[in-house]
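Journal club prep, notes for RB
We'll compare a predicted complex against what the paper describes. Inputs for the alpha-L-arabinofuranose case:
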Amino acid sequence: MILLALLAQSVTTLSLDFSKPGVAVSPTLYGLMTEEINHSYDGGLYGEQVRNRSFKDHREQAPHWRAVGEGASIALEPTGGINAAMPACLKVKGGAANEGYWGFRIQPGTRYKLSVWAKADRAGSIEASLESADGSKVYTKTTLTGVGSGWSKLEGTLETSRSVPATTDGRLVLKTGADRTTWLGMVSLFGPTFNNRPNGNRPDLMQLLADMKPKFLRFPGGNYLEGSTFKDRFNWKKTLGPIETRPGHQAPWGYRSTDGMGLLEFLEWAEDMGSEPVLGVFAGYVLNGDVIEAGTELSGFVQDALDQVEYITGGPKTKWGAQRVKDGHPKPFPLRYVEVGNEDAFDVSGSYEGRFVQFYDAIKKKYPKIKVISTTGGKDWLGRRFPITARKPDLLDEHYYSSTWEMMAMATQYDAYDRKGPKIFVGEWAAQDVPEPWKDAAKKGPTPNLKCALADAAFMTGMERNSDVVEMACYAPLLVNVNPGGRQWAVNLIGYDALSSFGSPSYYAQKMMMERVGDRTVPVSLSGAPTQSEGGRTLPGIFTSATRDTKSGKVYVKIVNALPTAQEIQFEVKGAKVASSGSITFLSGQLPDVNSIEEPFKVAPKQEAVTGLSGSFRRTVPGYSVSVLELRVNE
Ligand code: AHR
């Protein structure tokens, strides 16, 4: 239990000193990190609604499918599918229904694109409908004609009327006819997508992400990059092209990935948020401990990474740039950051330095402007450092999954970092109030409470004050399907089911801070601030940072009050004239407060206008709160 040692009646003074230059704020300070975990893509952001769409989720059965209609039957056939990438198919007599990812996203007045690869022993048609899970309500239906003896792709539109309710109570039914046997090779259903991208993303989740104004997107992992076994690494070349040619693979988090979210989709996702990609390349280390040592064998993977960079940035005359054009994106994407592997400190063979050097040299030779990120060398969440000495990485990726107390304690760790060393990329971090969020995740979480959000924000003040060293940071994991069985990690930023989504208190704390980052820090100090104690250890009760936008004169003062009581703060401004009006945005509540599907805005920011500001003024911040005070100054 936290014992709060409040200094009785003391007033905290927060001083902002504009007479000192501060440091430049990294323009890429805050971004997002993503991987396939917690059904982040399949059953999450990726707009596909049909689960087990190509019958690869199980070798002998067809989970998430069932026979529908009197005398109907379904059976998985492991061979005879539409192509080598999709060898399995579903033999159907009568009709089959798909249950979706914990239901379907049924919405009023909405058009759904349906595609079905099918063949039958007698020519005919398929009656497709979206219905309630028990079949008692039919929301919309259509007929797909032209089923023949060979595989063909049938396409149609399902459109709901405006009176259809918004619900997850749905299933997709395909009535194939009692008089024949039909085989289904791949079935896909998409509702509207963000920016109307084909094979695109769920609009509500994309909006939540874009609203954070992330400067970059780190992908594809995380453990998802490495894979549990070598064949299940993120093999980007197999994630390109039409969805029926992508074989998919087993994700390390216990379920298969369709790879519908492939390399191009990651890039378009970043583009749609106005972010730049931060590309993690497979670097020869697999989660089961297998390693491809530096040398000839690794050179194939180094070439694979160079091809990947060419796919992203190359012109139409390059082999892989031409492939991207063919895949539908003529314009090259920007790419300034490549990360070699993920968490290679777990590679106990000690091979990382050699592997890193091989990648580093090859990338720098062909793309000298790309910044190469090492996954070791910084401090990680187990407190380890494995410095690379043969080369100086441009950035070191540090990961922190820490208790709320430790995260607050780390608010000052970057004050002491070596200014001459590599820059820091905090590529995964989160404050958590449950131990080991990867164990028994179904019983914990799914999203952080206000206590976590306060610690997150406190840590961010430290990154912001030191953003001459911390060049980039991104929280993880980002997304979680909140349904039972949907998650493998307990503390995740954004939750959703098939229909609705919500940001956690940590989401809002980060959004408030990410939306308001200037281009220079303002030297800030606190005096007379109360402290907090736990188990004999003492930490500040209040955390702060300040940045300014040198063009507009806007100043953003971030204040985290980790104490239960409101705090009166005396602001003293030196070296600039403060305009009399501004605003304050704050997030507050009780420590255990969480948001949920049912109460998405229980903890959400509120904004108030502030007047009477000057070089010396007082303002009270609520107990347990994150506040951003916006001022305007003339220097
Ligand atoms: O974010 C969850 C996992 O934590 C990531 O996949 C991995 O990089 C880290 O260990």
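Talking point for the session: The longest strand covers residues 171-190.
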